[in-house]
Design a protein that fits this description.
The chain has 11 helices and 19 strands. The protein is of the alpha+beta class. The protein has 2 domains: 223 residues, Rossmann fold; 140 residues. A 10-stranded mixed sheet has the order 5-4-3-6-7-8-9-17-19-18, with helices on both faces. The chain has a 7-stranded antiparallel sheet with strand order 10-11-13-14-15-16-12, sandwiched between helices. Strand 10 and strand 11 form a beta hairpin. The longest helix is centred in the first third of the chain and has 21 residues. Bound molecules: S-adenosylmethionine (SAM). S-adenosylmethionine binds next to strand 2, strand 3, helix 5 and strand 4.
């Protein structure tokens, strides 16, 4: 009998056993990493045959917790549709706190997440899933027919307008990266309802769980994540300014409403030897930079993200090649980016900054100063993120807030 995970067999009965083993292993992994926490979500993830949503995908990949199944890429090579990775789906579903009998709107359809939601709300609940791409909705419909989820309605349209005819919703789960919060999402949510959205703030995307409080959304937790960018009326992609364009080892700065840099001067700065500044602040090997990076975003204005191909790091052109990008302080023709180095303790890394350009050392010192401030004043704190309507006057926003203005919303970040 062939029960090797990832292998399908001629015998449908054996194939079924193999699928269930893969699903159980995926669920166990999601529980172990803290992504799945509630029994209702566990039951849903154990049940849905997610590999059927992207035919032709390797079975083992379909059940790998970190693998998104890419289903569409645009002509510039940007992925625009996928079935999200199980870890991201679990994160968002737990953030949404889905209960039996609820009415839920999902924005961005792939079939799988809608089926999880359909399982969780049960027969007395309802899920509406909307996608802008008719190919995606056709595939989602087929998938949901196969899984038998009659409580899920699939519609084609721009989810930026929500789904008025089916509102109000107890929960809205946005599964595509958003730079703004359209007022329709707030208005179509019940008072006290939850909106879970991968919100891009200063270049970094965090899945934020918001609770509606009148016209305002109040955060109740967030976590870094990566998702495909929004299309339609709310499209707002980041711009990349290339600093090094040798094929395969490109390095660029991702701008998200940041001031336009002098690309030529910064490219020259990159080609100059780097200087280092170390902070004395250490992180454990498994400790995330996420709250530090949010602090840096809050404290420093001109902090785009440096993105680099792994080959650029291997050649020593940059010290880091994180796919999410590395916070990089730009001042005139110089810049500095956050980095780490090993310490004598194999489990701790020291934070610092590498500077490039004529003022590279000074810029690195400025970045390190903010790393020290975070360590001294905010380490262990969690920032608070609120969203207000775009016409909210400054004096009605929280004091000492960092404000991110977009066409439809004002997002504030405050620290305790
Ligand atoms: C990551 S995928 C969705 C994954 C899906 N929820 C799943 O089952 O894992 C994001 C989807 O958002 C869709 N999308 C992008 N912009 C949209 C918009 N304005 N309205 C509705 N859907 C949109 C894309 O077509 C894409 O299929």
């Amino acid at each position: 009998m062939d029960t090797v995970p990832g292998k399908t067999t001629e015998n449908p009965e054996n194939s079924h056993v193999s699928e269930q083993e893969l699903r159980d292993a995926m669920v166990q992994c999601l529980i172990d990493m803290g992504a799945l926490r509630t029994s209702r979500a566990v039951a849903a993830f154990r049940t849905i045959p997610r590999h059927l949503a992207a035919p032709g995908t390797d079975m083992a990949k379909a059940y790998d917790v970190e693998s998104a199944l890419i289903t569409k890429t645009d002509p510039t090579g940007v992925d625009i549709s996928s079935v999200s990775a199980p870890r991201i789906q679990a994160l968002q579903i737990e953030q949404a706190d889905i209960q039996h009998g609820m009415t839920v709107l999902e924005i961005g359809s792939g079939g799988v997440n809608a089926a999880y939601l359909g399982e969780m709300v049960g027969d007395r609940g309802r899920v509406v899933t909307v996608d802008i791409d008719p190919d995606v909705t056709a595939r989602a419909r087929d998938f949901l027919k196969t899984t038998g989820h009659r409580n899920v309605t699939v519609i084609t349209g721009d989810g930026g307008s929500g789904a008025l005819d089916f509102s109000p919703f107890d929960r809205i789960v946005v599964t595509v990266q958003a730079a703004d919060i359209p007022s329709s999402w707030v208005h179509q949510l019940t008072e006290g309802g939850r909106l879970v959205v991968p919100l891009r703030m200063r270049g970094m995307t965090r899945s934020v769980a918001f609770v509606r409080d009148g016209q305002r959304l109040v955060s109740d937790g967030f976590e870094l994540c990566g998702l495909v960018p929004m299309q339609g009326a709310g499209e707002n992609r980041m711009r990349v300014v290339v600093l090094h364009d040798v094929e395969g080892e490109e390095i660029g700065l991702r701008l998200d409403d940041h001031p336009e840099p002098d690309a030529k001067t910064l490219a020259q700065a990159l080609s100059m030897p780097r200087t280092a500044e170390w902070s004395g602040v250490t992180l454990a090997g498994d400790e995330s930079n996420e709250h530090l990076d949010l602090w840096l975003t809050t404290a420093l204005d001109n902090l785009p993200l440096m993105a680099a191909q792994p080959a650029a790091r291997e050649r020593g052109l940059v010290a880091s090649a994180s796919p999410l990008g590395v916070p990089t302080l730009v001042e005139g023709g110089s810049f500095a980016y956050r980095t780490v180095r090993r310490t004598d303790d194999p489990d701790r890394f020291e934070l610092g900054a590498y500077g490039h350009g004529p003022e590279g050392q000074k810029v690195a010192e400025r970045l390190v100063e903010e790393i020290r401030t975070w360590n001294r004043e905010h380490r262990g704190d969690r920032a608070h993120i609120d969203v207000y309507p775009a016409d909210t006057p400054d004096d009605q926003l929280p004091r000492n807030a960092r404000v991110i203005d977009r066409p439809h919303s004002r997002t504030t970040i405050t620290w305790p």
